[in-house]
Design a protein that fits this description.
This protein is α+β, with helices and mostly antiparallel strands. It is built from 5 helices and 9 strands. 36% of the residues lie in helices and 26% in strands. Helix 1 runs antiparallel to helix 2.
């Protein structure tokens, strides 16, 4: 049996909202300034000025609480160098179907939402690039990002990652190997993502970490059921003996 050799268990680069690019002193100043501006906005009698102050205050509060500044990210500036810790799942499943068939089904990325229920839709732009839409935990909305396939070895391996600046930094890899006795296919899946930076992202990551690997296991069980049902041999009926 072939043994899987992962690409050092892929971790998504911290390039989007998972990157903490504001130092702790700046975060404190931003949070205090944001609170002050927000309070000032509520006391304004001129709506236009109040709205402007509220927007500035909200932006500073986000900067302070999350540690992520979109403007600094756009210009490549960071005073922290920190990033959210990735959350990963590593799951193996055996599917009683030919390796090529399992690979080809996964390689059509638009098939993924059929067994990955947290995914709403995957749209392939070309052979390498795609757009993903997923449900947020608890049905609290949706999140989307663009991704690219950076390794594709037919019948053996597919590896993908989010593009720089994605709303959710993530990466994944799946390997396809012959099962013992070369009957069926073992799939080895490793998926990793970084929650948004800051305290809100940390709480979200802690909540998801407890259920993330179980969710991936259930996804692969659905894939197993789908492909094994398609490959179930048809039992021919035995004709009744002719009456003489």
């Amino acid at each position: 049996m072939d043994s899987p050799s992962y690409s050092l268990y892929p971790e998504p680069p911290a390039s989007g909202s998972s990157q903490i690019n504001v130092s702790n002193p700046e975060r404190v100043v931003s949070a205090i300034g944001g609170l002050a501006l927000t309070a000032f906005a509520f006391r304004q009698r001129r709506p236009a000025v109040g709205l402007l102050m509220g927007m500035l205050g909200g932006g500073l509060l986000y900067r302070g609480l999350s540690g992520h500044c979109p403007l600094s990210s756009a210009v490549g500036r960071s005073t922290s160098g920190q990033s959210a810790k990735p959350i990963s799942a590593h799951v193996t499943e055996t599917i009683l179907a030919p390796r090529r068939e399992v690979y080809e089904y996964w390689r059509q990325l638009e098939n993924l939402p059929r067994f990955m229920h947290h995914l709403l839709k995957v749209t392939e732009y070309d052979e390498r690039h795609s757009h993903w839409v997923a449900h947020l935990p608890g049905g609290r909305g949706r999140v989307s990002w663009d991704a690219e396939i950076h390794q594709d070895e037919p019948d053996q391996r597919i590896a993908w990652r989010s593009v720089p600046g994605a709303s959710v930094d993530n990466a994944g890899e799946v390997q396809f190997v012959d099962a013992p006795g070369r009957y069926g296919t073992e799939i080895h899946v490793h998926i990793s993502y970084r929650p948004p930076a800051g305290s809100i992202g940390l709480r979200l990551g802690q909540a998801l970490n407890r259920s993330f690997e179980q969710m991936v296991k259930e996804d692969l069980q659905r894939l197993k059921e789908m492909l094994e049902t398609e490959n179930k041999p048809v039992q021919m009926e035995t004709p009744a003996p002719a009456l003489v």
